[in-house]
Amino acid sequence: MMRIGHGFDVHAFGPGDHVILGGEKIAHSSGLIAHSDGDVVLHALCDALLGAAGLGDIGAHFPDTDATYADVDSRVLLRRVVALLDAHQWQVVNADITIIAQRPKIAPHTDAMRGHIASDIGVTHLAVNVKATTTESLGYIGREEGIACHAVALLIARAGTEV
């Protein structure tokens, strides 16, 4: 059995000198406002994985009302999601991720992001795709008010598992 999940996340810019996207620290004139590290890439991916498995969303598992998750590294959250998938007999096949940002430039960092993500979800580098687009200066992204991300993931049930 296969299942597909979709995730979306957005965070506004705020004080700071970098953003973290796909587990990669990228120098920027602003940071992202969030309870955790604000990694929209990994948050969207967590939601895609949880959605595909029918296990809710990132907020249900790691609520922003819980101080445990204040400033947490989103790679930790992603690894916990993968452990939850494993406990429910799901295996990640691939992930396709689209970052929507006017700035910073994403392309120089996509290979590093792919490496972090592949390592954390237990697939090869080739099973993770990270790309970026702008909004051609339209809307809140175009006005550089924040960054958004869409993620799609495919899961398969482990052999002999009924889900």
Overview of the structural elements:
There is one protein chain. The protein contains 5 helices and 7 strands. With 163 residues, it is of the alpha+beta class. It is globular. The N and C termini lie close together (8 Å). The model has no long low-confidence stretch (mean pLDDT 96).
- Classified by CATH, the class is Alpha Beta
Q: What is the approximate shape? A: globular
CATH structural fold name: 60s Ribosomal Protein L30, Chain: A
Terminal CA distance reads: 8 Å
Query: So, the CATH homologous superfamily?
Result: 2-C-methyl-D-erythritol 2,4-cyclodiphosphate synthase
CATH architecture: 2-Layer Sandwich
How do the SSEs run, as a string of H and E? EEEEHHHEHEHE
- Main β-sheet, in a few words? 5 strands, mixed
Which percent range describes the beta-strand content?
Answer: 25-35%
- Rg (CA only): 15 Å
* Average pLDDT level: 96
Number of strands: 7
Number of domains: 1
Neighbour order of strands in the largest sheet: 4-1-7-5-6
Helix fraction bin: 25-40%
